[in-house]
Amino acid sequence: MTATAENVRSALEVDKVESHLHPEGSLNVDDHTAPTGREEIWRFTPLKRLRGLASDATYASSGTTVATFNTPDGVRVETVSGDDAKALRGISDLVPNTLFGARILAEVPDTLLVDVPANAEVTEPIIVDVTGSDASSTEGAHVALRFGAHSSAVVVLRHTGSASLAQVVEVNVGDGAHASVVSLQDWADDAVHLSHHEAVVGRDASYKHAAISFGGDVVRMDSNVHYAGPGGAAEMLGLYFADAGQHIEHRLFVDHDAPNTKSNAVYKGALQGEGAHTVWIGNVLIRKVAEGIETFEENRNLVLTDGCQADSVPNLEIETGEIAGAGHASATGRFDDNQLFYLRSRGIEENEARRLVVHGFFNELVSRINVPEIEERLLETVEAELSKNVLKAF
């Protein structure tokens, strides 16, 4: 850690903020209790459908398989255990504020490590496939993604199959590095996935995180970021599509705990079918030490049929007025009638017009993810989701 970063940390210890957006955490499992649903951070989540993952589920031997689609030269991708695994716990400075997060750090014996060395420029995405085969078996997993100083790389975590998985992903982005992490949740319909992603971004480093959720019965992902020094930038992207009965929840927390840092969050979702429910919580904390920062967060939801519910809650907590800019936007609605009218007036049949509007809604965000190897797959998945319900005029 640089001297400047150490000074920032010291200032934080003196001027500590107890944020209502992010309850105080602990590494001690005994300090945590099982959630009841009355807590602010759990009030939207259907706890009974999580199969105990948030509380006392047994973490069985892994029912998922992990395979690396590719391992570029110089990059280390392997599962480690024992002291090697313990040494990777906390590489993101994570202090869990949930029972399942504390349990994973304390109880799961292995860690999946992706290690990009300093100064490496990895031109092809590092794709790791996590494939489940048994949703009746609950399990926990720890993943450590480490990007050395001044390195550049993209890591894709691709989740498929049937599983009941509680997961902690820690990301350490070294000074001057350019790191991208894509987490694709393309589970089978019976899967449950509860995950926490925590990233620390070094001085003058950039971090892009993309959360993409389509499949699963219940998917909840917490995506957090904070800074180890000034000049760091984080781009938080999200794309999700919920069908009948699905619950998809994305929560992000950006902790501006260093000066002259930046963050930008854009999440887009679509819903269709009876009981489809999406939740987006965008929390940004600007501490007193974080002068000169810029932040903006945006969430857009497109409701395709009746019987859906989209909850969208942006929050800003600002402890200093010496900032370059801060803002948020949230909107949930049906199709843009003007867009439909324009397409219909060009002779395009109504269902096709609606399909084009949905693709247009997502395309800009897909291009910002900027991973050609999965872009085509994402657009195919959107098309498959649309085919499940014939879009009718409202």
UniProtKB/TrEMBL annotation:
Under InterPro entries, the record lists: Fe-S_cluster_assembly_SufBD (IPR055346), SUF_FeS_clus_asmbl_SufBD_core (IPR000825), SUF_FeS_clus_asmbl_SufBD_sf (IPR037284), SUF_FeS_clus_asmbl_SufD (IPR011542)
Q: Which GO terms describe its biological process?
A: iron-sulfur cluster assembly
Domain SUF system FeS cluster assembly SufBD core per the UniProt entry, residue ranges: 137-361
Q: Which family does it belong to?
A: Belongs to the iron-sulfur cluster assembly SufBD family.
According to UniProt, the name of this protein is: Fe-S cluster assembly protein SufD
